[in-house]
């Protein structure tokens, strides 16, 4: 087991990363009160709920559960309210703990509920998807969607502890595993060429679900995000680097309709586009671009998107939050493994990078 | 105009207190972005919305409004969501400002919306009831009710500025004015004998709506709360003093059904009960007790409640949040103008204090 400490001002919490974590032992110091509400969904509950209930009961805690329906479309205020209903119906008070057991959807909703119930109660996160392990574990973002926008309503809420158990990834659908690998590749491409080399060597193991390799990848990814977030807690600068591939990816997701492609899949193509534009700008070599495409393909992720009319693609891109005052800012690679936030690129090259990575007739 | 600065760690904000405040001039430094959402209700909107819209338009801001239905029963998640709907339908972004124009209900809901929209946007408070001026202006508590409990869901959110305009109190129903005076008397009784003397001299002016007297009372009250909250931001100790009269009052409110009596009215009787118990304990004199009753009556507030079966009264009292581990802690007066948090009182005297201040047959 590896332990990563996330340092954020006066808040500091550990992420325990390993396989078959001894949760009973590890949980103990992080729950002061008696009551623990486990928030999960109807896919994850049959798989892992019992384990957590048992561990908590052994710790002499009173547990209750709130089992939401599975899916991003249930990440809304109505389902958030079901968590409040459960907390209050169970007579939970301000000393209680909310434990999120599930992927990013559950983590975001349970975290927001923990931030808001009684104006803030203890929050513990058990991310059970690779994506949520490497992304939701660090940064404290929680929230819900609104019909008019994703993640529009929420809070910053740091967990008191995070458990990332690789063994739980064994039940994850392969497409979801690859979606998580997409964000892992992102960390390598934006700031760690050595990690990229490591991934190139270990990708076969990762896609096969090798728990030791996964743990190492999760550890390195969380460490990267933790460092970037700590440097820029309020999202003024460096944190934008985490959006490598996301402006392009956002356009793909929006055009196809959220849910058609997984976020990680759209980001994968987005990273290819960012790499291609960086190449056209003369910043990375043909070989570098090939390496980007290759690692993405090794992770069973797409390297091109369906055909999307350019004007629509561009308009979706500029709806993206990273657009300030009408100017598009992109995260591009000045060299492989070193991304920057920049407005200084050739717009025609950008268009070319988009078009080059679409597959006609799809 | 008087200005009170509330100091809370790295957050510091002014409360402007006066009559006919020059809001256009005063608002200017506190709104960086272009968009301002005014949240108000259908009672307050016809009275004051135009004034604020005009001032904001003169400042070159884009305004929109969200007019909720008036009443505590609308302080719920459905109406909170109407604020989010309005923000998103108007295309508001994370640089926007939410301005609460109304009493405590509007302040609590708009504040929670400001805390949660985009995980936090600028918040400005214009409390238009006396109660919200002296209570909601300081402390940063925001939130909504749940069918199973009041104020169960919310956030701590400090405003960037508060405007308390005495002129707006001219339209307030007299009962609501008195309810605000109840909390003002509380500040005097819990920690400021000199303020009590001042109130005794000025109560006729206050109930008549004298704006200068009201401004002084609001200033002193907010200063008291600010000092107490700053000493105890996380509600571990001293802040409980602010609950003088509230454990008894809570029982009265609960028994009668929320909304029958105003909160300030129930607290008024609660303060009499606390004073009577303090007297029975030998801590304050007969004359002191008479002074407490007199100032409360001067404010047109009740000094006794309807008959409530003692066992029910006690059971409602112990549902109160200030009960720790089954022991009732009360805020009592060690001397007049000096309250303490204590478990050291005679329970029979407590029962007697309750019974002595009920009116049989009501
Ligand atoms: N808070 C943050 O910082 C942050 C970061 C990234 C993404 N997110 C959010 O996270 C969400 C995406 O997260 P996600 O990719 O984990 O999606 P998800 O939570 O929808 O999980 C994907 C699917 O896998 C299932 N699943 C989860 N764990 C499983 C397991 N161990 N075995 C089998 N199936 C399992 C889920 O039930 C779901 O069907 C989005 O809502 C996004 O906005 C938040
Ligand atoms: N956040 C805090 O720290 C805090 C503190 C105390 C109370 N509260 C909350 O505040 C609420 C009570 O506040 P309240 O007493 O202001 O109640 P309120 O907001 O319901 O206002 C009382 C009534 O007066 C009306 N009104 C408001 N301003 C008016 C004006 N200028 N002229 C005419 N009518 C006007 C309102 O529409 C309402 O009908 C409760 O929900 C309570 O939980 C919060
Ligand atoms: Zn992402
Ligand atoms: Zn009160």
Question: How do the helices and strands line up, and which of them pair or pack?
Answer:
Two copies of one chain form a homodimer.
Chain A: E1 2-8, E2 11-18, H1 23-27, E3 35-41, H2 45-58, E4 62-68, H3 77-89, E5 97-102, H4 104-116, E6 122-127, H5 130-136, E7 141-146, E8 149-156, E9 161-165, H6 174-191, H7 193-207, H8 211-231, H9 246-256, H10 263-280, H11 286-298, E10 305-306, H12 310-318, E11 330-335, E12 338-342, H13 347-356, E13 358-359
Parallel strand pairs in A: 2-9, 3-4, 3-5, 5-6, 6-9, 10-13
Antiparallel strand pairs in A: 1-2, 7-8, 11-12
Helix pairs in contact in A: 3-4, 5-6, 5-8, 6-7, 6-8, 6-10, 7-8, 9-10, 9-12, 10-11, 10-13
Bound molecules: nicotinamide-adenine-dinucleotide (NAD) (2 copies) and zinc ion (2 copies).
One nicotinamide-adenine-dinucleotide binds next to helix 4, helix 5 and helix 6 of chain B.
């Amino acid at each position: 087991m590896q332990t990563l400490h996330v340092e954020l001002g006066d808040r500091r919490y550990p992420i325990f990363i390993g396989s078959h974590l001894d949760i009973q032992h590890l949980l103990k110091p992080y729950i002061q009160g008696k009551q623990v509400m486990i928030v999960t969904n109807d896919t994850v509950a049959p798989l892992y709920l019992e384990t957590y209930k048992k561990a908590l009961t052994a710790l002499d805690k009173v547990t209750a559960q709130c089992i939401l329906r599975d899916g991003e479309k249930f990440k809304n205020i109505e389902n958030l309210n079901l968590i409040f209903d459960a907390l209050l119906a169970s007579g939970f008070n301000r000393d209680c703990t909310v434990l999120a057991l599930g992927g990013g959807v559950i983590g975001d909703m349970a975290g927001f509920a923990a931030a808001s119930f009684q104006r803030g109660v203890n929050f513990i996160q058990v991310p059970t998807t690779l994506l949520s392990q490497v992304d939701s574990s660090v940064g404290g973002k929680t929230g819900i969607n609104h019909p008019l926008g994703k993640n529009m309503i929420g809070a910053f809420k740091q967990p008191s502890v995070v458990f990332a158990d690789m063994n739980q990834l064994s039940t994850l659908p392969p497409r979801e595993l690859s979606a998580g690998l997409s964000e892992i590749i992102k960390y390598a491409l934006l700031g760690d060429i050595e990690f990229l080399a490591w991934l190139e060597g270990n990708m076969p193991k990762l896609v096969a679900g090798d728990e030791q390799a996964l743990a190492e990848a999760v550890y390195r990814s969380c460490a990267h995000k933790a460092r970037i977030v700590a440097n820029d807690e309020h999202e003024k600068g460096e944190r934008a680097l985490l959006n490598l591939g996301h402006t392009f990816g956002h356009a793909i997701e929006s055009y196809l309709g959220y849910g058609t492609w997984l976020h990680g899949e759209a980001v994968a193509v987005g990273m290819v586009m960012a790499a291609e534009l960086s190449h056209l700008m003369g910043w990375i070599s043909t070989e570098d671009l090939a390496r980007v495409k290759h690692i993405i393909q090794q992770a069973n992720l797409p390297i091109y998107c369906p055909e999307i009319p350019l004007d629509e693609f561009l308009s979706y891109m500029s709806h993206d939050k990273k657009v300030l005052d009408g100017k598009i800012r992109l995260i591009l690679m000045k060299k492989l493994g070193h991304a920057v936030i920049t407005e200084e690129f050739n717009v025609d090259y950008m268009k070319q990078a988009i078009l080059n990575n679409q597959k006609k007739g799809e």
